[in-house]
């Protein structure tokens, strides 16, 4: 690098600070920590500063036991043994280490390797908490930094002392790490932005950023198309200090007369690509998003950026160019002219509305700190902490939805916490039919009555769930009692009732268990003179004395004798026909109502096949005059 280049770099850094130093601040994102045991420490609430690596459990929480290793409390070397901190009970281990001697990330990595579920680093002095950052790029750190997959936090020295004191007394120190408030989740749409750069020649940082965009593209587009998120790409620019406006450095690194600059990719003003090329491509990518957003397909930005990187990488000679960009736009059927119009004239001595806005936004506002490094992800106006990795970021975005409004992508396999595997997460379940209310989500498990084969279960999800509505009896018999004996089935579920279980006739119980009623013993039926009663499952058999026929619904015996029976039938039909008259009505209502069901008719026709013709004739003959009367 030439001296001049170094000088320029320094200047650019200074000017960058000018853009965002009005109110320069870096917001330390925090998670809550609560001591669950020992009991006397329960009342206090604490915070931890989330690290800028690893995977914070956005939206969720973790309960674990603190371990402070006597040997290696700095955590700078791998711990002896095979996963010495691996949880032996159901409760994970949260390792407490002291700050100092090596990178934060190395401590956390060693802790993870040793089987701990999270790492707390105790600050070494009394000071406001800081964010534990990834180490500067170094060949040594690159090996593990991306592999860290657990959450970690820096805690205050005094809080750490409290924990250590309790531990030295031999107490079991259990804490709850809680990230549920680390991400605002006010409504059912998440707004997020990625501060990025089209430069792909800046080493591992640029590669990391591009890999993230490629890996996250699928998720991002699903979320955007579904209207679940509003994503905005953001690009950082610098500006040229006034005294240097006419210098060749500013001319090669800036557009619009020094207003918008980016560092020269090779840090050599004479060779290869210029800073200006980067600013122009950044502007083009912004305009691709703007123009596409106007026709409601903003997600095309992800396609454009990934395609551009594949086809027009700086690594390919002279490919990082307007021509290549236009080829990509054409292949994606983007309106090139509109995008050009949005970009304006980079040579003109005027403000560019699009880039001006980006510069203004670099300064933090509200809960969001200044944008000081790339790439930076901002979700619901909070700077995301943790590694820029597909799953970790999705977790962060998902935690930004108001509970229960998150799209199904948030409930997918790779975000599960597997909390349902232990004791079914404490939720309701029907082991016999393999139905559970436990649902694994990124927030941890939820106990929610399931929807099975189109039938909704309702209940508190913890102790009870019941199928409700049509079709409920087809699944697990609506949770009701049912039993089959000798090919005969009785059920306490009825489709005509939307909920609940009722024991069928002949049974007694709460509907979940039903017991046969012994009608004979209880004297509920077969009380006719001389009848013999025998209980059956779900009913009873009643035999009348001699050859008499038992009529179930009326609990009475009638003669099988045809003439008498014929009379009875006449009597019966008479009553129906007479129902027009008051006498008939009374008779019908009080005497024969129960006779008139199909069961009786069926029994009759069965027992009197020979008499039926004659009887029906008689019936008609006798019936006519009565109707007129
Ligand atoms: C994208 O369009 C929506 C309306 O459809 C608008 O609210 C939003 O501000 C636009 N985003 C950008 C970056 O223009
Ligand atoms: C885009 O969506 C907004 C509201 O969602 C609507 O007002 C606008 O007309 C749409 N634009 C196009 C080009 O479909
Ligand atoms: C219960 O259902 C789950 C998924 O629905 C399945 O993975 C599991 O094997 C089932 N278990 C039994 C015992 O059928």
TrEMBL record:
* Superkingdom to which the source organism belongs: Eukaryota
Q: Secretion signal: which residues?
A: 1-24
InterPro entries in UniProt: cEGF (IPR026823), EGF-like_Ca-bd_dom (IPR001881), EGF_Ca-bd_CS (IPR018097), PA_dom_sf (IPR046450), PA_domain (IPR003137), VSR_TRX (IPR056858)
Transmembrane segment boundaries: 565-588
Pfam families, alphabetized: cEGF (PF12662), PA (PF02225), VSR_TRX (PF25011)
Q: Name one GO biological process term.
A: protein targeting to vacuole
Q: Which SMART domains match?
A: EGF_CA
Q: Does the keyword Amino-acid biosynthesis apply?
A: no
Question: What's an example of a GO molecular-function annotation for this chain?
Answer: calcium ion binding
Q: Which residue ranges does the record assign to the EGF-like calcium-binding domain?
A: 516-558
Q: Does the keyword RNA-binding apply?
A: no
Spell out the subcellular localization from the entry.
Golgi apparatus membrane
Q: Which GO terms describe its cellular component?
A: Golgi membrane
Please provide the record's keywords in A-Z order. Answer: Calcium, Disulfide bond, EGF-like domain, Glycoprotein, Golgi apparatus, Membrane, Protein transport, Repeat, Signal, Transmembrane, Transmembrane helix, Transport
- Where is it mostly found? Golgi
Q: Which family does it belong to?
A: Belongs to the VSR (BP-80) family.
Entry protein name: EGF-like calcium-binding domain-containing protein
